[in-house]
Amino acid sequence: MERGPGDEAADRHDRLLAALYGRGDLVLLRSDGGLSELAGRTAPLRVVLVTVADDASAEQIRARIEPLVKAVRAGGPPTHFVLVGGGAAAGRAALSGAAPFVQLVRMGFHHVDAAGALARVKGPALPALDEASARLAEAGPLGPEALAGAIEEGRALAQQERAIVDRLTGSRRVTAVIVVACAALLAVSYAFGPGTHETALWRMGANSGEAVRRGEVYRLLASAFLHADAVHLFVNMLALWSFGPMLEALFGPRRYLLLYGASALGGSLASNLLDDRWSVGASGAIWGLMMAGVGVALRPHGLLPPAMIAQMRSRAWWPLAINLVYSFQPGVDLLAHLGGGVVGFALVVTVLPRGLTPVEQRARRERRERPTDAEPRPRPLLSAAAALVGAAMALSVVVALAAGRPWELAAPPALKRTAVGDTGISLDLPQAAVDAAAVEDLEGVRFYTYGRLPETTIMFQLAIFPLDGEVPPDQLDGFLEQERRTLDERRPAGAVAKGPATRVTLGGRPAVSVRNELPNGVQVVSTIVVLGDKEVVLQAYSTKDRPASWAGIEDKVAATLGSP
Q: What is the rounded CA–CA span in Å between residue 97 and residue 304?
């Protein structure tokens, strides 16, 4: 090699390099000007040997080391810097100063002094370096031909790794379609005016165990394409774009589509079978992809070279740990994450990779050159299964839109005259509420319910109490005043009063009305009207996020109370 500063230090550099390379588990990437770089042959590792004169000052040493440390890229292999030369005090001071407080990768800093003694200055130890240092006195430097051959071999392996990485980033069509679909549906959910977003998400297929058990199974997949807001979408799509293309290229588009769809389904089932909350988001499917990457690292099925598998194993656990901690935050659907992750991991460690062509083999004819080379031969059943999963995901979104009709949120609801059982009372109600009618007896009182939150945006509940007879006109004011005081005193538990109970006129009749907000944000308007010998209590429940065009609908409906 070309001599660097100080022949004695350069000689120690050459002998240490020969001892490290001679172990057989490192390859040489470069060696010139007193600087050599080695990399792990089958494990993620980088060793940088830097030579300085034995009389170099701490400032000179630091000026040589710091640019190399700053050049380390995030996500790279563990890197060890070995300073050969410089006095013990100056070398260790310079290495300590060059070691960054926040490290993008795990780093070790070591010093070989003029006597050939090795000292670990900062960071973890490197057993290979300890063993090479122990043989420093007996090791001879590599000859020019051996050095050139070692560099040629290292560059060939580095080029091979770059080619593999290129092949694993060349396929992202399925990922791109998913990203576009999610972004488009978020835009649709905001398209119906202010105050409609959450209701639109429900109508567009938000996941809910109760709704799925009623037969709305399309929500299991449709919900994986919906997002609560732009930040939710951005975080999920960033994660998807970070490792989705690699898995798409590794497994091929068809198996990748199967993996994504099965993970989305697993996440939705875990969420709604064990939890009655409603939810949206691609997180379950993305956790399936993330755990699929962990599965590849633990059981690679021969798809990737050992060195790349070793790197994946060293990097797989930090994202998993960070995402697991995040999953316990309020509002995050932990069950969907775990359900999707279990499905993705199970598929990859069992059946999904079977029969795939390894990304890199010695026989060129068996090596992948294009993403379509993932399958060594046509597989009609696999194609049919992938087509079925793709169609199911697309159809789930279409069915959700057709069933939920979110575009109706942009206009005031049309009202339909509806008889309340056989009570002789009727009122005008939104058609969606009429379609979700139910009757229930509680403590001897029959309640008539129309609507179901959150899907119908508003829900009406009536209770009709018979009186001893018609209230005389001169006693009606006193009767309603007593009911007004009762409404003020007996508010629902935990409710926040939105104003006092007041006397109002609805449909030309005197009535009493009060507004409250429940702890879950649901708005409640309670109205009492006397119709002949019956007292009618009408309660209207609505989501806080509802269309502006629906303002005042509680009073409009109450004003229509009367005979059929």
A: 39
